[in-house]
Amino acid sequence: MTEQTSIDDISELDIEILKKLSIDGRISLRQLAKDLGNKSPVTIKNHVEKLESGGIIMNYGANINYEKLKYDIIALIELTISKGKMLEVELEIAKNPNIFAVYDITGEYDALILARFKTRNDLSKMIKKIHTSPYVERTNTHIVLNVIKEQTFFKDIVEQEKMKNQDSSFPINISTLEDKNKMKKTKAQFYVDIAKEPFGISEKEIHEAIKIYGKEVIDFLTGLIVVNVSGNRLLNRNLINILMGMDELDESTGQRILTQIKDSLSFLSFGNIDEGFNDAIITIKNFLGSETLLRWLDKFEKFDYITLYKSDLPDMPSIEFIREAVSECFKMGDSKLKKIASSVEKKIEEFLKNYGQ
């Protein structure tokens, strides 16, 4: 039986070897020895063999750019599985070539699947196939908007493990943070916190983050324009308003935000989240115009999510807000657009009638 190498057996030279191999698995031993301070190739060979036989290096592979292959959609799918059938279902699901990870997890769901797809249709087909299993009770799908980090750099893990072994309290060195005097969050932690509460960020927080971390913060935030809440896809109106009103926003980024809003109209969903529907109405009207708003509203068979009056929810659009868009479209004179405006107006009246207004 091969003896496994523990974290305590890893030397600084081993760490440097692993770092190099994680970047280029095809590097020759001679080049590796040269890059590591003109070490002896024999010494490097012995260390690599120790790492291989000890189970630290399991295999060598290529780091593939899946976006170049048009696999742009990354999905995280949570599953609830019938008791006693979890392994059976997971093994069957794992056969799908689009799936690159299957995990047992704690919490509300039983399993987590990570998969890549070329199109939303491919994703939809796979989810429908999963639901054909009599043992899959429920699924919840998240689509990745932006990849902030996808590889865990092993050196960080090794050093953290060593710190834990030296001191169980595992202290955080505040001096490593970017703003040492004010002890601000690291950029990664800022991103994590914002991703957890994407609707709550303030304009002041964004300006402070830009001062500390630079304009790349804006690029990150544009990935939070559409947010998943309880399985519903909602427009982040607060963030859109802040970004579109910022002096730091360049024209190309502003155009990209508008394109994202427009592209999102085909897959927004609201459940019973009134605020989400009304936020979408305001955002579409303000940034894409009355015509786009009515074309979008006309796709709904009926209006179940409208907040009737501003008094019901502060700063939410009333029926009068949509009627304003209808009036504007009637004035445009286009016969097809008038037909859409009439259809939306009819749905408004049916909504008011059903709710006794």
Number of helices: 15
User: Helicity range of the residues?
Assistant: 40-55%
**Number of separate structural domains:** 3
Average pLDDT reading: 81
Compressed to H and E, one letter per element, the order equals HHHEHEEHEHHHHEEHHHHHH
State which percent range the strand residues make up: 5-15%
Overall form: elongated
Q: Uncertain regions: pLDDT < 50 for 5+ in a row?
A: 166-184
Number of strands: 6
Gap between N and C termini: 78 Å
- Global Rg: 27 Å
Q: Could you give the order of strands across the largest sheet?
A: 2-3-1-4
Largest sheet: 4 strands, antiparallel
| Computed structural class | alpha+beta
Oligomeric state, counting identical vs distinct chains: single chain
Characterize the structure shown:
- The chain has 357 residues and is of the alpha+beta class.
- It folds into three domains: 7-53, Orthogonal Bundle (Arc Repressor Mutant, subunit A), CATH 1.10.10; 73-143, Alpha-Beta Plaits, CATH 3.30.70.920; 187-354, no CATH class.
- The chain has 15 helices and six strands.
- A four-stranded antiparallel beta sheet has the order 2-3-1-4.
- A hairpin with a 6-residue loop joins strand 2 (99-104) and strand 3 (111-117).
- The chain is elongated, with a radius of gyration of 27 Å.
